[in-house]
Amino acid sequence: MLIVAAVLGVVWWLTRPPALPTIPQQYLATVESAAKTCPELSVPMLAAQLDTESRWNPQADSGQAQGIAQFHPSTWAEWGKDHTGDGKADVWNPADAIPTQGAYMCHLFRVVKDVPGDPTKLALAAYNAGPGAVLKARGIPRIPETQNYVNRIEGLIPKYTQTYTKQISASPSPPGS
């Protein structure tokens, strides 16, 4: 009987559905604030993008891009802002990088607005491949990395939508609400 129970436990462990992703609590308020930057953004979309970019690792460094939002140094030089008030726009600080990601994504939505296709997919493709590549292709460029990037985020958005709803319903209400 003990062997059967052990086998059933192993089978359950190997076949259980993967855990749904959640926004790390220390970044929740920052992602929520960044999502308010423009109407095209949502908390689940930014969360799925951060998950895809760095798996929420503020020290991520691909050799081409840096930080939790994986900014290329030239993009950060143009778009990076000091959101913490410490006098430094720091790509390694999520409190600077996540709001900058939101602002840059809003810009990308405006850049691709006349390109045929789904605006969210186009803006995500522009974040990954650069806005010029999306404009030149008049859609999502035929770059496997970019296509996989967009597809991964699109697949994560419903999962983050589900878990974000649970996260905010489990959060204590602020005083006076």
How would you characterize the overall build of this protein?
About 35% of the residues are buried. The protein is globular and about 65 Å long. Helix 2 (about 25-35) packs parallel to helix 5 and helix 6 (about 120-130) crosses helix 8 (about 145-170). It is built from eight helices and no strands. By secondary structure, the protein is mostly helical.
Weakly predicted, low-confidence segments: none
Look at the structure and give the mean pLDDT.
Answer: 91
Helix content: 55-70%
Main sheet summary: none
Q: Give the overall shape, derived from the CA principal axes.
A: globular
Give the percentage of residues in beta strands: under 5%
Radius of gyration equals: 19 Å
Instruction: List the total number of helices.
Output: 8
Annotation, overall tally of beta strands: 0
Order of helices and strands: HHHHHHHH
Structural class: mainly alpha
Question: Termini separation (Å)?
Answer: 54 Å
Provide tags for this entry:
8 helices, mainly alpha, 177 residues, 60% helix, globular
In short:
This protein has 177 residues and is mainly α. 60% of the residues lie in helices and 0% in strands. The longest helix has 27 residues, at 144-170.
Q: Can you lay out the helices and strands and say which pair or pack?
A:
Elements: H1 2-15, H2 25-35, H3 43-54, H4 73-79, H5 94-111, H6 119-129, H7 131-137, H8 144-170
Helix pairs in contact: 2-5, 3-8, 5-6, 6-7, 6-8
